[in-house]
Amino acid sequence: PNENATMSTESQSYQNPLVKRYASAEMLQIFSDDNRYRTWRRLWLALAESEAELGLNISEAQLDELRAHLDDIDYDRVAEHESELRHDVMAHIKTFGEACPSAAGIIHLGATSCYVTDNADCILNRQALELVRSRLARLLGALEGFALEYKELPALAYTHFQPAQLTSVGKRAAIWAQDLLLDLKEVQFRLDGLRFRGVKGTTGTQASFLRLFDGDTDKVEALDEMVTKKMDFEARFRVTGQTYTRKQDEATLHALSGLAQSAHKISNDVRLLQRLGEMEEPFETRQVGSSAMPYKRNPMRMER
After folding, report:
1. How far from 51 is each of 54, 58, 107, 209, 219, CA to CA, in Å?
2. 254 tagged catalytic
Protein backbone atom coordinates (compact mmCIF):
# COMPACT_ATOMS: atom_id res chain seq x y z
CA PRO A 1 0.00 0.00 0.00
CA ASN A 2 1.00 3.61 -0.51
CA GLU A 3 2.11 4.77 2.95
CA ASN A 4 2.22 8.41 1.88
CA ALA A 5 -1.41 8.23 0.76
CA THR A 6 -2.35 6.74 4.12
CA MET A 7 -0.49 9.48 5.97
CA SER A 8 -2.19 12.13 3.82
CA THR A 9 -5.65 10.74 4.54
CA GLU A 10 -4.97 10.50 8.26
CA SER A 11 -3.67 14.06 8.41
CA GLN A 12 -6.88 15.41 6.90
CA SER A 13 -9.14 14.06 9.64
CA TYR A 14 -8.96 14.00 13.44
CA GLN A 15 -8.18 10.48 14.69
CA ASN A 16 -10.06 9.02 17.67
CA PRO A 17 -11.83 5.67 18.25
CA LEU A 18 -15.19 7.43 18.64
CA VAL A 19 -15.14 9.64 15.56
CA LYS A 20 -16.58 7.23 13.00
CA ARG A 21 -19.77 6.93 15.00
CA TYR A 22 -20.23 10.40 16.46
CA ALA A 23 -18.32 13.12 14.60
CA SER A 24 -19.11 14.92 11.36
CA ALA A 25 -16.62 15.19 8.51
CA GLU A 26 -16.53 18.97 8.98
CA MET A 27 -15.67 18.74 12.68
CA LEU A 28 -13.03 16.10 12.01
CA GLN A 29 -11.41 18.40 9.46
CA ILE A 30 -11.27 21.26 11.97
CA PHE A 31 -9.30 19.17 14.46
CA SER A 32 -7.23 17.36 11.83
CA ASP A 33 -3.45 17.47 11.74
CA ASP A 34 -3.59 19.39 8.47
CA ASN A 35 -5.73 22.17 9.89
CA ARG A 36 -3.80 22.38 13.14
CA TYR A 37 -0.32 22.45 11.66
CA ARG A 38 -1.26 24.71 8.77
CA THR A 39 -2.59 27.05 11.43
CA TRP A 40 0.79 26.86 13.14
CA ARG A 41 2.46 27.96 9.92
CA ARG A 42 0.03 30.83 9.52
CA LEU A 43 0.81 31.90 13.06
CA TRP A 44 4.53 31.86 12.28
CA LEU A 45 3.87 33.92 9.16
CA ALA A 46 1.74 36.45 11.06
CA LEU A 47 4.50 36.80 13.67
CA ALA A 48 7.23 37.29 11.05
CA GLU A 49 5.13 39.78 9.07
CA SER A 50 4.42 41.82 12.18
CA GLU A 51 8.05 41.76 13.31
CA ALA A 52 9.10 42.97 9.86
CA GLU A 53 6.53 45.77 9.92
CA LEU A 54 7.92 46.87 13.28
CA GLY A 55 11.46 47.11 11.96
CA LEU A 56 13.19 43.78 12.47
CA ASN A 57 15.56 42.63 9.74
CA ILE A 58 13.15 40.38 7.85
CA SER A 59 12.93 40.69 4.07
CA GLU A 60 9.88 40.46 1.85
CA ALA A 61 11.57 37.59 0.00
CA GLN A 62 11.74 35.62 3.25
CA LEU A 63 8.07 36.31 3.92
CA ASP A 64 7.16 35.27 0.39
CA GLU A 65 8.98 31.99 0.93
CA LEU A 66 6.96 31.35 4.08
CA ARG A 67 3.72 32.19 2.25
CA ALA A 68 4.58 29.71 -0.50
CA HIS A 69 4.84 26.80 1.94
CA LEU A 70 1.92 27.20 4.32
CA ASP A 71 0.18 23.99 3.30
CA ASP A 72 2.77 21.52 1.97
CA ILE A 73 3.70 19.81 5.24
CA ASP A 74 6.05 16.83 4.96
CA TYR A 75 4.76 14.65 7.81
CA ASP A 76 7.38 11.98 7.22
CA ARG A 77 10.08 14.59 7.77
CA VAL A 78 8.28 15.89 10.86
CA ALA A 79 8.24 12.36 12.27
CA GLU A 80 11.97 11.96 11.60
CA HIS A 81 12.77 15.20 13.41
CA GLU A 82 10.48 14.39 16.32
CA SER A 83 12.02 10.94 16.79
CA GLU A 84 15.36 12.69 17.28
CA LEU A 85 14.32 15.91 19.05
CA ARG A 86 11.42 14.53 21.11
CA HIS A 87 9.66 17.86 20.65
CA ASP A 88 6.71 18.32 18.30
CA VAL A 89 6.97 22.09 17.85
CA MET A 90 10.70 21.99 17.13
CA ALA A 91 10.10 19.15 14.65
CA HIS A 92 7.65 21.35 12.75
CA ILE A 93 9.97 24.37 12.93
CA LYS A 94 12.79 22.31 11.42
CA THR A 95 10.53 20.92 8.69
CA PHE A 96 9.14 24.36 7.82
CA GLY A 97 12.68 25.73 7.75
CA GLU A 98 13.81 23.03 5.33
CA ALA A 99 10.97 24.02 2.99
CA CYS A 100 11.93 27.70 3.39
CA PRO A 101 15.74 27.71 3.75
CA SER A 102 16.23 31.46 3.35
CA ALA A 103 13.56 32.12 5.99
CA ALA A 104 14.55 29.37 8.43
CA GLY A 105 16.17 31.83 10.81
CA ILE A 106 13.07 34.00 11.22
CA ILE A 107 10.57 31.22 11.94
CA HIS A 108 9.36 31.33 15.56
CA LEU A 109 11.58 34.37 16.23
CA GLY A 110 11.24 35.29 19.92
CA ALA A 111 8.34 32.90 20.41
CA THR A 112 7.69 29.92 22.68
CA SER A 113 5.91 26.67 21.87
CA CYS A 114 2.65 27.92 23.37
CA TYR A 115 2.63 30.73 20.83
CA VAL A 116 1.58 28.18 18.23
CA THR A 117 -0.03 25.46 20.36
CA ASP A 118 -2.25 27.69 22.50
CA ASN A 119 -3.12 30.23 19.83
CA ALA A 120 -3.97 27.40 17.44
CA ASP A 121 -6.26 25.92 20.09
CA CYS A 122 -8.05 29.28 20.34
CA ILE A 123 -8.47 29.36 16.56
CA LEU A 124 -9.64 25.76 16.20
CA ASN A 125 -12.05 26.04 19.11
CA ARG A 126 -13.54 29.12 17.49
CA GLN A 127 -13.93 27.28 14.18
CA ALA A 128 -15.63 24.39 15.98
CA LEU A 129 -18.03 26.69 17.84
CA GLU A 130 -18.89 28.44 14.58
CA LEU A 131 -19.78 25.06 13.06
CA VAL A 132 -21.92 24.20 16.10
CA ARG A 133 -23.65 27.58 15.84
CA SER A 134 -24.40 27.09 12.15
CA ARG A 135 -25.83 23.61 12.60
CA LEU A 136 -27.79 24.60 15.68
CA ALA A 137 -29.37 27.49 13.77
CA ARG A 138 -30.39 25.11 10.96
CA LEU A 139 -31.81 22.66 13.49
CA LEU A 140 -33.89 25.42 15.05
CA GLY A 141 -35.23 26.38 11.63
CA ALA A 142 -36.28 22.80 10.93
CA LEU A 143 -37.81 22.41 14.38
CA GLU A 144 -39.76 25.64 13.95
CA GLY A 145 -41.30 24.28 10.76
CA PHE A 146 -42.17 21.00 12.49
CA ALA A 147 -43.75 22.80 15.45
CA LEU A 148 -45.90 25.01 13.21
CA GLU A 149 -46.96 22.09 11.02
CA TYR A 150 -48.17 20.07 13.98
CA LYS A 151 -49.24 22.85 16.33
CA GLU A 152 -52.88 21.65 16.28
CA LEU A 153 -52.26 17.90 16.29
CA PRO A 154 -53.44 16.71 19.71
CA ALA A 155 -51.21 14.53 21.85
CA LEU A 156 -51.26 13.34 25.40
CA ALA A 157 -49.00 15.12 27.87
CA TYR A 158 -47.46 13.37 30.83
CA THR A 159 -46.32 14.18 34.34
CA HIS A 160 -44.19 11.59 36.13
CA PHE A 161 -44.57 9.76 32.79
CA GLN A 162 -48.21 9.19 33.67
CA PRO A 163 -51.08 10.37 31.41
CA ALA A 164 -52.04 13.95 32.35
CA GLN A 165 -53.75 16.39 29.95
CA LEU A 166 -53.93 17.19 26.26
CA THR A 167 -51.17 19.08 24.56
CA SER A 168 -50.11 19.18 20.91
CA VAL A 169 -47.17 17.75 19.02
CA GLY A 170 -46.20 21.28 18.02
CA LYS A 171 -46.27 22.45 21.63
CA ARG A 172 -43.95 19.62 22.62
CA ALA A 173 -41.55 20.59 19.81
CA ALA A 174 -41.70 24.23 20.95
CA ILE A 175 -40.35 23.15 24.34
CA TRP A 176 -37.42 21.48 22.62
CA ALA A 177 -36.83 24.54 20.45
CA GLN A 178 -36.85 26.86 23.45
CA ASP A 179 -34.01 24.90 25.07
CA LEU A 180 -32.03 24.88 21.83
CA LEU A 181 -32.52 28.62 21.42
CA LEU A 182 -31.02 29.14 24.87
CA ASP A 183 -28.11 26.95 23.79
CA LEU A 184 -27.64 28.97 20.60
CA LYS A 185 -27.50 32.19 22.60
CA GLU A 186 -24.95 30.64 24.97
CA VAL A 187 -22.78 29.45 22.07
CA GLN A 188 -22.91 32.93 20.54
CA PHE A 189 -22.03 34.49 23.89
CA ARG A 190 -19.00 32.23 24.19
CA LEU A 191 -17.94 32.98 20.62
CA ASP A 192 -18.18 36.71 21.26
CA GLY A 193 -16.01 36.33 24.36
CA LEU A 194 -13.25 34.16 22.89
CA ARG A 195 -9.82 35.71 23.28
CA PHE A 196 -6.50 35.08 21.59
CA ARG A 197 -3.48 34.15 23.72
CA GLY A 198 -1.35 36.54 21.76
CA VAL A 199 2.40 37.12 21.74
CA LYS A 200 3.47 36.77 25.36
CA GLY A 201 6.81 34.95 25.39
CA THR A 202 7.73 31.97 27.53
CA THR A 203 6.09 32.91 30.82
CA GLY A 204 3.86 35.79 29.82
CA THR A 205 6.37 38.58 30.50
CA GLN A 206 7.25 39.15 26.81
CA ALA A 207 10.92 39.25 27.85
CA SER A 208 12.20 37.70 24.61
CA PHE A 209 10.37 40.29 22.53
CA LEU A 210 11.62 43.12 24.71
CA ARG A 211 15.14 41.95 23.88
CA LEU A 212 14.33 41.75 20.17
CA PHE A 213 13.05 45.32 20.19
CA ASP A 214 15.79 46.71 22.48
CA GLY A 215 13.40 47.35 25.35
CA ASP A 216 10.84 49.25 23.26
CA THR A 217 7.63 48.38 25.12
CA ASP A 218 5.46 50.20 22.59
CA LYS A 219 6.67 47.92 19.80
CA VAL A 220 6.15 44.82 21.92
CA GLU A 221 2.59 45.91 22.67
CA ALA A 222 2.05 46.70 18.99
CA LEU A 223 3.37 43.26 18.02
CA ASP A 224 0.85 41.57 20.31
CA GLU A 225 -1.98 43.64 18.86
CA MET A 226 -0.92 43.19 15.22
CA VAL A 227 -0.72 39.39 15.40
CA THR A 228 -4.07 39.28 17.17
CA LYS A 229 -5.67 41.26 14.34
CA LYS A 230 -3.95 39.21 11.63
CA MET A 231 -5.52 36.07 13.09
CA ASP A 232 -8.97 37.74 13.05
CA PHE A 233 -9.45 38.13 16.80
CA GLU A 234 -10.87 41.29 18.30
CA ALA A 235 -9.54 40.66 21.80
CA ARG A 236 -6.57 38.98 23.44
CA PHE A 237 -5.69 38.08 27.00
CA ARG A 238 -3.89 40.95 28.68
CA VAL A 239 -2.20 38.63 31.16
CA THR A 240 -1.05 35.03 30.67
CA GLY A 241 1.52 32.66 32.03
CA GLN A 242 3.04 30.15 29.68
CA THR A 243 -0.52 29.27 28.62
CA TYR A 244 -3.75 31.21 28.39
CA THR A 245 -6.20 30.58 31.22
CA ARG A 246 -8.10 27.33 30.85
CA LYS A 247 -11.17 29.09 32.21
CA GLN A 248 -11.82 29.95 28.57
CA ASP A 249 -11.89 26.27 27.64
CA GLU A 250 -14.13 25.51 30.62
CA ALA A 251 -16.58 28.17 29.45
CA THR A 252 -16.66 26.60 25.99
CA LEU A 253 -17.31 23.17 27.50
CA HIS A 254 -20.08 24.66 29.63
CA ALA A 255 -21.89 25.83 26.49
CA LEU A 256 -21.43 22.45 24.82
CA SER A 257 -22.61 20.68 27.96
CA GLY A 258 -25.83 22.69 27.88
CA LEU A 259 -26.39 21.70 24.26
CA ALA A 260 -25.73 18.05 25.12
CA GLN A 261 -28.31 18.26 27.90
CA SER A 262 -30.90 19.57 25.45
CA ALA A 263 -30.07 16.83 22.96
CA HIS A 264 -30.45 14.24 25.71
CA LYS A 265 -33.87 15.55 26.71
CA ILE A 266 -35.14 15.60 23.12
CA SER A 267 -33.81 12.15 22.29
CA ASN A 268 -35.11 10.67 25.53
CA ASP A 269 -38.56 12.18 24.91
CA VAL A 270 -38.68 10.68 21.42
CA ARG A 271 -37.42 7.34 22.71
CA LEU A 272 -40.20 7.17 25.30
CA LEU A 273 -42.84 8.35 22.82
CA GLN A 274 -41.70 5.71 20.35
CA ARG A 275 -42.30 3.06 23.01
CA LEU A 276 -45.85 4.42 23.36
CA GLY A 277 -46.33 4.54 19.60
CA GLU A 278 -46.99 8.30 19.56
CA MET A 279 -43.87 9.33 17.67
CA GLU A 280 -41.21 7.40 15.80
CA GLU A 281 -37.86 8.19 14.27
CA PRO A 282 -37.33 7.20 10.61
CA PHE A 283 -36.86 3.48 9.97
CA GLU A 284 -35.34 2.59 6.60
CA THR A 285 -36.55 -0.19 4.31
CA ARG A 286 -33.63 -2.54 4.92
CA GLN A 287 -32.87 -1.39 8.46
CA VAL A 288 -32.65 -4.14 11.10
CA GLY A 289 -33.70 -3.53 14.69
CA SER A 290 -31.89 -6.47 16.24
CA SER A 291 -29.66 -9.34 15.16
CA ALA A 292 -31.88 -11.77 17.09
CA MET A 293 -35.21 -9.93 16.78
CA PRO A 294 -35.36 -8.26 13.34
CA TYR A 295 -38.96 -7.15 13.88
CA LYS A 296 -37.83 -4.61 16.49
CA ARG A 297 -37.81 -0.90 15.59
CA ASN A 298 -35.18 0.42 17.96
CA PRO A 299 -34.78 4.25 18.22
CA MET A 300 -31.09 3.95 17.38
CA ARG A 301 -30.68 7.55 16.24
CA MET A 302 -32.00 8.89 19.52
CA GLU A 303 -29.90 6.43 21.51
CA ARG A 304 -26.77 7.36 19.60
Report:
1. 5, 8, 11, 10, 9
2. no
